[in-house]
Design brief:
187 residues; alpha+beta; five-stranded antiparallel beta sheet; 6 helices; 45% helix
Amino acid sequence: MGRVQMLWMAAVLALGLVALAAAQDQRGSLMSASSMRPDPRYRAWQLRPKRRDEPLRYLNISDYEVREIQEVAEKYLPKVLLNISPVVTGCPCEEGPQCTDQVYIVAQTSQDSRGLQLSRVKNAWVVGAVQQWYLKYEELHARVPKLNYLEVLRAESELYREFPVCVGEMVPAENDTPAAKKAETKK
């Protein structure tokens, strides 16, 4: 009886060690071998466009910026804007070193609502690199019923290779918005 219990405990211990090694391998697989950066699938999930509420910019948004956002949004969303989130400072490094702020807008159609994340790059509101990638991702998934399984895998793999990558050290860009300039002069 003692030998059976010893064998049983050894088997449980061995299975525990195998499970621990598998968990460490899985964590390690999230980092690609080249340059130890996160797997693009994981990073894409982390950066999916969504509303952020912090850190807020000192002055939220000017009338001029609202008009600029509306012009950009007309190209991607229906004419009716429902919501412009507060302006947040800072951008993920994938947006590039010239990105200073971000805002999330939502527009309503007759069937549903759609969101779009805009980035302030070189003092202009634009659809940032990550949001552009997500537009391609949504376009691919809209075509999935027309593609066979291998075509979907190939297209997804190619798309993940195109995911924006951080380049070098983040250098904060200067924010020269009219609202920011006025705030600095009032200090």
